[in-house]
Amino acid sequence: MTDAFPKDFVWGAASSAYQIEGGAAQDGRGPSVWDTFCERPGAVRDGHTGDVACDHYNRFNDDVKLMADMGVRAYRFSISWTRVLPSGRGRINEKGLAFYGRLVDALLAAGIEPWATLFHWDYPEALQQQGGWLDRESPEWFARYAGVMSSALADRVTNWMTINEPQIFIGHGHGDGAHAPGLKLSMPERLVASHHVLLAHGRGVAAIREAAKRPVKVGWAVCGRADHPASESPADIEAARGAFNAVTKRDSWNNTFWADPVCLGRYPEDALRLFADEMPVYTAGDMKTISAPLDFYGVNIYSGDRWRAGEGGVPEVVPQGPGHPQTAFGWPITPGCMEWAVRFLHERYKLPIYITENGMASIDWVDSEGKVQDPQRIDFTRGYLRSLAKAANAGLCKGYFHWSILDNFEWAEGYRQRFGLVHVDFDTLARTQKESAKWYRGVMKSGVV
Ligand code: FCB
């Protein structure tokens, strides 16, 4: 069985600045909340940090060659805010800015389309100390940074994403404290921070467009629930759709609390009921700013619950049987979530969808023959892509970025979880293409999986 993707489907791989760059103290980069968080005893597994990571800051030319060799057509990377603005605002660090210019030039010269994310969690420490996302000025700080990057790169970078996964950096960074900046805010404070993040996104969209000297495409890259139906029966589909679009829990792990304001200009009714008088005061002007029109919707998909209409039609999650397939991280393998997340998002928000991340952690090493055998990653990706092919051929999804190009610093898990298509030896920093990279090369070339 094979599935062919549309000819113009965008094939790529992804990374983020703090997870691969290293060079933490090089050329005037300022500290981010992840630098400080990593210093906290016990915060990150085995005390790992992103100080060196994959040393991509110094090896980007080789990494671009590697990507070209792998047949990567599009590369999603993020910009380190504090490389460019060491204190988050104020003085521009020209050396840091120049790095991204060189990276973009190298990518374009290699025939690889750059896709830039402005904020992938490495928030400036200096701004954190001034209140971070709790400060009403924080959207303006972000807008300034977005404008700086757009003036510098929009002549060459067409595709932009404002923020990555607010669900996680609010949920873990400001809720349970498992991620930087390690805060455990009260619910009303968390909601204030969330509202400011949404405003920053909207202000960022406007700033990117304003500073670009030509038309650009702007989106974001979020995650959320990937609820999907256990069968194609209308009742099961409805059960999954209901869960996908609902805000039922007092956490940030949902789709609509974030995406309804951005794409529809309003908070969803169920969230307003759930958080009732805990919501911050906001204006119609705020909602207009937040809902600045987007060109695409980027979504990161890893795993999701399967739903069915249970007894009396009541929606219920289908329990996973014993031994259900899972990744090294323990994330359940549920390929059907790909097709349905795209269908549900497109149905509600009517935007072209890009899968801005998908992949899995596995236990990989360079074997005695010098190869990295990762058949699970190949099978995982094949299954998810076959599911995605249905949505792509229905015209709903336009591209796919595998997470990740390189093994990297997996946040609170340190270097233990390997997500790369390319293996990195963190002692020697040697790169070795995994078997999955060779397989993926064929997929990108043929568009057939
Ligand atoms: C996502 C993050 C990304 C990476 C993957 C595994 O939540 O956006 O940086 O850590 O998970």
Q: Key terms for this structure?
A:
globular; alpha/beta; 8-stranded parallel β-barrel; single chain; 449 residues
Query: How confident overall, as mean pLDDT?
Result: 98
Helix content: 40-55%
Between the first and last Cα atoms, what is the distance in angstroms? 9 Å
* Share of β-strand residues: 5-15%
Describe the main β-sheet briefly. 8 strands, parallel, barrel
Explain the overall architecture.
The chain is α/β, with parallel strands linked by helices and 449 residues long. 41% of the residues lie in helices and 13% in strands. The protein has 16 helices and 13 strands. The strands form 3 sheets. The chain has an 8-stranded parallel beta barrel, surrounded by 5 helices. The chain has a 3-stranded mixed β-sheet with strand order 6-8-9. Helix 15 (375-393) links the parallel strand 10 (353-357) and strand 11. The structure holds beta-D-fucopyranose (FCB). Beta-D-fucopyranose binds next to loops.
Q: How do you describe this structure in short?
A:
The protein has helices at residues 17-20, 33-39, 56-70, 81-84, 94-109, 125-129, 138-153, 166-176, 187-211, 234-244, 256-264, 269-275, 284-290, 336-349, 375-393, 435-446, and strands at residues 10-14, 74-78, 113-119, 159-164, 217-222, 228-229, 297-300, 306-309, 315-317, 353-357, 397-403, 422-424, 431-433. It is of the alpha/beta class. It has one domain: Glycosidases (TIM Barrel).
Topology:
Layout: E1 10-14, H1 17-20, H2 33-39, H3 56-70, E2 74-78, H4 81-84, H5 94-109, E3 113-119, H6 125-129, H7 138-153, E4 159-164, H8 166-176, H9 187-211, E5 217-222, E6 228-229, H10 234-244, H11 256-264, H12 269-275, H13 284-290, E7 297-300, E8 306-309, E9 315-317, H14 336-349, E10 353-357, H15 375-393, E11 397-403, E12 422-424, E13 431-433, H16 435-446
Parallel strand pairs: 1-2, 1-11, 2-3, 3-4, 4-5, 5-7, 6-8, 7-10, 10-11
Antiparallel strand pairs: 8-9, 12-13
Helix pairs in contact: 3-5, 7-9, 8-9, 9-13, 14-15
This protein binds beta-D-fucopyranose.
Beta-D-fucopyranose binds next to loops.
